Structures are given as C-alpha cells and as structure tokens.
Amino acid sequence: MQPFVIAINGLKQGSTQFDWRADAKFFGNFENSDILDASLDLQVQTSRNTGYLGVECNIKGSVEVVCDRCLENLTLPVDTSFRLSVKFSAAGSEDGEGIVRTDCGDMEIVMLPEGEAELDLSQFIYDYVCTSLPMRRVHPEGECNPSATRYLNSEETAEDSAAAQQSPFAALKDMLK
Predict the structure, then answer these.
(1) What is each CA distance from 71 to 8, 38, 42, 49, 78, in whole angstroms?
(2) Where are the domains of the chain?
(3) Fewer CB within 10 Å, N or C, the chain?
(4) What is the pLDDT of residues 75-109, one digit of tens each?
C-alpha cells in the first residue's frame, strides 16, 4: 500500500490508526508547490461502520518556503488537522470523478462510489498544509538576508531619478507641490 492511501476494503470495523511522514518528495508531486522541504508527522485515525468511514488527521511539523521579503529559505511550523466523513453512494458523482467533496462546518463530507477500494488522502493533506500557512511568509524582524534588506531599504539611485524625470508623468509631480 502506498503512503497516504487507505485501503477501504481491508479496513476492519471500528478504529484504526495510521502514522505517516510527509517530506519534500511528497510536496514535489504537486505542481507549483510553494513548499520546498517538509518534515511532517501525520496521525490518521479511522472509524469504520457499515456504509460510513470517519477520518481524523492531525499534522504537525515544519515546512520550508521562500521568504516573501528576502527570497531566502524560511522554516514555518505546521500544526493543523482535518476531519472527513466518507459516505458511499451508488450514484457516484455527476462529473464521473468518483470523489465529491462538500464542506460541512468542522468536517468535510466525501462521497465515494460504492465498492471503491481506496481513499487517497494526498490531496487533502496537501490542501490543509498549504491553507495552514500564513498569507505573508517572512522572517521575523531582523532575520532576513542583510544584503537583500539593504537593497530594499536603499535610497533612489541617480539612474532611477533621471529615468523618473524623463517620464511623461514627471510634470504631474510638480502639480502636487
């Protein structure tokens, strides 16, 4: 069995726990991932009853992304969780994909076609880790690359000033004074 996939047919009634790790290789499988490296521990608890599967996943660890300010690598902590309520339907989904996701408060409802053998949690894990990260990813004050911050804080150069004077909008600046 590959990581992050639950074999539904082989899952016993009651509760089962899985312990997985996600690293850079996992995030490399997703296009345009902002995550460069990761060290995440996943604890997945399943509860199986007839016609129902409950999944609770806790994710803890850290990921490495690019700092928005200095473009150096930045390590961010991750501590997130999600709950899924998996139900089986004879109809399946309208688009033929198999999995239908619906948000329902603190848990997502996932509809799978009856007889589905596996539940792949990879996309769920990726989505929840990415949404747990802050929108603005920067080092704490004073920890950015000094040469990058020096460049960002530098005064306007003579070349920039000459280019601004040649701009057709330069005359409008004088009107503000």
Answers:
(1) 43, 18, 29, 49, 20
(2) 5-143
(3) C
(4) 999 999 999 999 887 765 454 455 556 555 677 88
* Tokens matching residue 174: 């004088």
In this structure, which amino acid lies at residue 24?
Answer: A
In this structure, are strands 107-113 and 73-89 parallel, antiparallel, or unpaired? parallel
Phi, psi of 113 (to 5 degrees): -65, 145
Find the Cα–Cα–Cα–Cα dihedral 28, 31, 37, 40, rounded to 10°: -80
Model pTM score: 0.77
User: How many residues would you count in the chain?
Assistant: 177
Identity of residue 35: I
- Rounded CA gap, 89 and 146, in Å? 57
DSSP 71: -
